[in-house]
Design goal:
about 240 residues; 7 helices; single chain; 9-stranded mixed sheet; Rossmann fold; alpha/beta; about 30% helix
């Protein structure tokens, strides 16, 4: 069984985006525990970006990933989610992967678009906000539980291959081991450039107009006095706002 995890750099220090760490850990748990009827689970990681983002592949190797793919792109402040998803789909579609994991959103834009777009481009079923997954390879399905509003859980059976976006907090990502980090240089990394994937560059579906800090429209209210005084003030505030 082959699992592909899409990861993104979370900082200039080569750290993996926190949301993607949960996705990688979930894949590595499947690798460690195995799957019924599947003798081996291979975990590949893919990332897109300029030269320096290759550091996240090394970190993924330190956590236990088997192979890495680096889609080499030009330095840019903002890249359309559609362009990223298109690049990932071009790689994933040729890899014969049974499962593709992504974080629920990126650490910078937090839009949550890339995973569902990737699934649409591949024409794979997709579940977002996954908090549990149970692999049943003999039946060709994965059973998932996804987080819904007001504490509800959505339970689905999804045919493989599939794309799952993993909710934050589903697990505790492991720390890279020293022995794996030292051996990471021996693991295979495939480097592709956008021109290798698309003779004509993919055109973005949206563009970044501006980034602005939110303006403060009202000031907060600080409660003073003893704890009992603060509780009384807070209860009065809630009553005045018809919240109690």
């Amino acid at each position: 069984m082959k699992i592909l995890v899409c990861i993104k750099q979370g900082s200039e220090k080569g750290e993996i985006s926190r949301f993607d760490e949960f996705a990688l850990e979930e894949a590595l748990v499947l690798k460690d525990n195995g799957a019924e009827g599947i003798p081996e689970v291979r975990v590949d990681v893919v990332t897109a970006g300029p030269d320096h983002v290759a550091a996240v592949i090394k970190r993924a190797f330190g956590m236990g990933a088997d192979r890495g793919i680096h889609i080499l792109t030009r330095e840019a402040q903002y890249v359309s989610a559609f362009v990223i998803a298109s690049n990932l789909a071009a790689v994933a579609g040729k890899g014969g992967y049974d499962l593709i994991f992504t974080g629920i959103m990126s650490q910078d834009m937090m839009a949550g678009q890339t995973g569902p777009m990737l699934a649409e481009l591949l024409e794979y079923p997709c579940a977002t906000g996954v908090v549990k997954n149970y692999l049943a390879p003999a039946a060709g399905i994965v059973r998932v539980e996804r987080e819904m509003a007001k504490g509800y859980t959505d339970c689905l059976e999804i045919m493989l291959p599939a794309v799952l976006t993993i909710q934050a907090g589903i697990n505790t990502p492991r720390y890279p081991s020293l022995s794996r980090m030292l051996a990471s240089g021996k693991k295979p990394v495939t480097t592709l450039v956008e021109g290798d994937l698309f003779p004509i560059p993919v055109r973005p579906k949206e563009s970044l107009v501006a980034i602005e800090q939110p303006e403060q429209t009202r000031s907060g209210q600080r409660l003073g006095g003893s704890l009992d005084d603060q509780v009384r003030q807070f209860k009065t505030f809630l009553r005045e706002k018809d919240l109690l």
